[in-house]
């Protein structure tokens, strides 16, 4: 057998090293929710994504739940820099892609199934392409972080008129401030960690959150009334660093795409379950739950939407057409 030359040995060594590095390639997946897949929508999405990707590729997926790598804004920055390859975030996406804010227009989605059809259809694809160009982050799938409702400890709210004079804790986001002002109440931005104390001391009369958050954080024990107005459908974005994505083989990209779509669906399912479970629990614990009629919901929509849309058109500037595109997509989904 002919003795291998030193150059050939070095070439084979480099090839072996390269193959070893490829086999050891790792995806860091960060999110801020708990790890428990049975109760956490992001936890469930991350876990099934990991199992599918590791089962069908040589990639390794390391999960970093519960804010282990930072808050959502920090996760987005890490994903853009490629320090964390995949993240699942909600509101933070609008920091790097302003058009994502249109999904928070109040009462734009009549129910989650309409939101799913819009996000999984041409509109969702177009928004994902736009956000990729804006941020360098590819939206692999959309999940769900909950439908938001109002609670308070003063009186039952059936129409916007019932909100007059009440102070509601809102996130420190202009869109939410404009929404509550449009409904005739007083918006009071309060950091999440201070919400229980603000409710207990009367700094605010009420707050707004998905039912799973209300029940999971025992807010129902501090608030007597819940109104199922569903003012905002909150979307999760499952995104990947585009440079990293393009560095993968075509086969691995296909697996990641499919795993992400399944993960988004899994997250939606867990969120829907926690919503149903939480609603049953808060009612059993004595919270008074009111579900507005179609006519009453129309009053909420007619009061809140114009103020928010006007503000958002100014915020988006030459990208304001995304508002019209979303409204058209919702109308089409309802007509189908």
Protein model, in words:
The protein has 336 residues and is an alpha/beta fold. It has a single domain (6-335), classed as D-Maltodextrin-Binding Protein, domain 2 (3-Layer(aba) Sandwich). Strands 1, 2, 3, 4, 5, 6, 7, 8 and 9 form a nine-stranded mixed β-sheet that branches. The protein contains twelve helices and nine strands.
Keywords:
12 helices; D-Maltodextrin-Binding Protein, domain 2; single chain; 9 strands; 336 residues; alpha/beta; disordered N terminus
Question: What would CATH call the architecture?
Answer: 3-Layer(aba) Sandwich
The helix content is 40-55%
Output the CATH class name.
Answer: Alpha Beta
Instruction: Tell me the overall shape.
Output: globular
User: Biggest sheet, open or closed, and with what strands and sense?
Assistant: 9 strands, mixed
CATH superfamily: Bacterial extracellular solute-binding protein, family 7
Taken together, the total number of domains comes to 1
Give the total of beta strands: 9
The structural class is: alpha/beta
Estimated share of beta-strand residues: 15-25%
Mean pLDDT: 93
**What pattern of helices and strands is seen along the backbone?**
HEHEHEHHEEHEHEHEHHEHH
Task: Report the span from N to C terminus.
Answer: 72 Å
Q: How many distinct helices?
A: 12
Return Rg in Å: 23 Å
Keywords: Periplasm, Receptor, Signal
GO molecular function: carbohydrate binding
Subcellular location: Periplasm
Pfam families: DctP (PF03480)
